[in-house]
UniProtKB/TrEMBL annotation:
Name of this chain's protein: Oligopeptide transport ATP-binding protein OppD
Statement: the UniProt record of this protein carries the keyword Nucleotide-binding: yes
Entry's Gene Ontology molecular function annotations: ATP binding; ATP hydrolysis activity
Keywords annotated in UniProt: ATP-binding, Nucleotide-binding, Transport
SUPFAM superfamilies: P-loop containing nucleoside triphosphate hydrolases
Annotated GO biological process: peptide transport; transmembrane transport
Organism: Vibrio thalassae
PANTHER family referenced in this protein's UniProt entry, alphabetically: MALTOSE ABC TRANSPORTER, ATP-BINDING PROTEIN (PTHR43067:SF3), OLIGOPEPTIDE/DIPEPTIDE ABC TRANSPORTER, ATPASE SUBUNIT (PTHR43067)
Designated gene of the protein: oppD_3
Keyword Cell inner membrane: no
Ranges for domain ABC transporter: 15-262
A Pfam family: oligo_HPY
Alphabetical list of InterPro entries matching this protein: AAA+_ATPase (IPR003593), ABC_transporter-like_ATP-bd (IPR003439), ABC_transporter-like_CS (IPR017871), Oligopep_ABC_C (IPR013563), P-loop_NTPase (IPR027417)
């Protein structure tokens, strides 16, 4: 079991040894394997990694949104000390949207295409008993649209009448409708151009500073994450392989996979550099080998790596890594 050093008063969410399986005809496939991390109040924590590494599975677990064949088989998800996995239906309903809300990957798929934006705001307010009339709901919805810089007269439009960036801002406004304590953002800028991406993330950061909520930010784009997050966790094949402050992940990664991710995007200044990909293919979770899951693709893999699974251990200064041969420790003469 991984025990992170943090104070109970500063911790909002504490995930402990989370395991999520997908039940198939060939048996269970473990998509998330013993993942532990915490999110502090007012903090932005990022989870990065390639497609299929378990990022979205963790996000859905935090709100217990999984449906069969997904199964949370082990672990704890503590929100202000209460285990989300043990909440009954009433507690879970109250927890969702009021305490934690989520911005999903595709805004167009999240919004009902045959209902106006106004109706969808009303649906949220009415479900949680926050308004006594449609007029009160409209005023609350207009206030939220102003927060995300959308003209209030657009409230009675349908989703297809908005651009991709505007739809995403509408979804963010809906996620903030009940003033949650944590906002989960799962690939919030997918399919948007880089200019719109920056505008949306800047707005999210401004809202976080204004309202004081925490954020779990999930993406495969490490360069985008570094600009926004306080700390970043790197996922590979269902496991958390590194966790560190964002600048450390970019400039001094310890895990070879994190190093490979950092080399996957070009720098904006300095000399031209040759881009290098990570060799091999993502692991087939039906055929998990002994030892480190990244070993077949790792340029530093040893016999120990191929036979003994590394544990997530502390390196000090809020740095954690699951690797037998960490890169920075070697260069610093510690290994």
């Amino acid at each position: 079991m991984v025990n992170f050093t943090h104070t109970e008063t500063s911790t909002l969410v504490d995930v402990r040894n989370l395991c999520v399986d997908y039940v198939t005809f060939d048996g269970k496939v473990r998509a998330v394997n013993n993942v532990s991390f915490h999110i502090n109040r007012g903090e932005i924590l990022g989870l990065a990694g390639e497609s299929g590494c378990g990022k979205s599975t963790i996000a859905y677990s935090l709100m217990r949104l999984h449906r069969p064949p997904a199964l949370i088989s082990e672990g704890e998800i503590l929100f202000e000390g209460q285990d989300v996995l043990k909440m009954d239906d009433d507690e879970l309903r109250n927890f969702r949207w009021k305490d934690t809300s989520m911005v999903f990957q595709s805004a167009m798929n999240c919004l009902n295409p045959v209902k106006t934006i106004e109706y969808q705001f009303f649906d949220i307010f009415d479900a949680h008993g926050l308004v006594s009339s449609r007029e009160e709901s409209i005023e609350k919805a207009k206030e939220l649209l102003r927060i995300v810089d959308i003209p209030t007269e657009r409230l009675f439009d349908y989703p297809h009448q908005f651009s991709g960036g505007m739809r995403q801002r509408v979804v963010i406004a809906m996620a903030l409708a009940l003033n949650p304590k944590i906002l989960i953002m799962d690939e919030p800028t997918t399919a948007l151009d880089v200019v719109v991406q920056r505008e949306i993330l800047q707005k999210v950061y401004e809202l976080k500073e204004r309202f004081g909520f925490s954020i779990l930010f999930i993406t495969h784009d490490l360069s985008l994450m570094v600009e926004l997050c306080d700390r970043i966790g790197i996922m590979y094949s269902g496991q958390l392989v590194e966790l560190a402050p964002s600048k450390v992940i970019l400039q001094q990664p310890n895990h070879p996979y994190a190093h490979g991710l950092g080399d996957s995007f070009p720098t904006l200044k300095g000399e031209l550099q040759e881009m290098k990909g990570i060799p091999g293919s993502p692991l087939d979770l039906k055929k998990v080998p002994p030892g480190c899951r990244f070993a077949p693709r790792c340029f530093k893999a040893t016999t120990q790596c191929r036979t003994q699974e590394p544990k997530l251990v502390s390196l000090g200064q809020s740095r954690w890594v699951a690797c037998h041969t960490p890169l920075q420790l070697e260069t610093e003469g510690v290994a």
